[in-house]
Amino acid sequence: MGDTADGRVRDIFLGLDTSGFQTGLALVSGGAVLYETRSSAGTSHNESLLLLIRRALDAAGLQLDQLRGICLTIGPGMWTGLRVGLSTVKGLALPKGIAVKGVNTLRVIAATAGAGGGAVLAVMDARRNELYAALYHGTRVLIPPQAGASPFLGRLVAERQPPGDLLLAGDGSELIKPVLSAMGIRFVDSGVRLPEPAVIVRLGVELLKSEGPDRLSELEPVYLRRTDAEINLEGRLKGGL
């Protein structure tokens, strides 16, 4: 925790997203964003993550042990990015006793887009002709996070969406739009494509208050399906039979 100019203690949280091709980071105190950035990370995040965290702390005039907590997306998303993000956070938090809270990536995307409390369909491009998707209406989870092809997910949405237009968010939005249109499902594109780091903090802090911090020894990424490496290996094995 850091001290304000008048000596009061303030709660400072780090929000981190490594679920995609970019690293998103924010430092937040009392709802105010002290620092926020997003940087292209390619497929690994290895080289950029610690440097981005160091730059953020330096820019805000903070030390790592002044953080009250670290909130991060734990999936779904890219396998390597999620592993690097989580292992980095564990390595930073454990020696300092910093609280850590993992937040579902789709929940963050929905919260970034759906401040009005209507129904939000969060959709991420999972590649291999699949999507990660979840449907939220306020605090209710109408479709839990899962992976599937667009037609399958479209049928789920048709069955479970509440009345009114659907708010669409996430980098898989363009991939599911034709299916929703063909099914007569009305939607509005929010324009949100990525999880907002400051929103990761907001949701993470809410979960910290209601659930407490995660056990670092038990915290693992949420993949929703097998990794690309496992799928490729299975294909090679079948091809050799």
TrEMBL record:
GO cellular component: cytosol
Protein name: tRNA (Adenosine(37)-N6)-threonylcarbamoyltransferase complex dimerization subunit type 1 TsaB
GO MF annotation list: transferase activity
Pfam families documented for this protein: TsaD
One GO term (biological process): tRNA threonylcarbamoyladenosine modification
The keyword Transferase belongs to this UniProt entry's keyword annotation: yes
Keywords, sorted A to Z: Transferase
Organism superkingdom: Bacteria
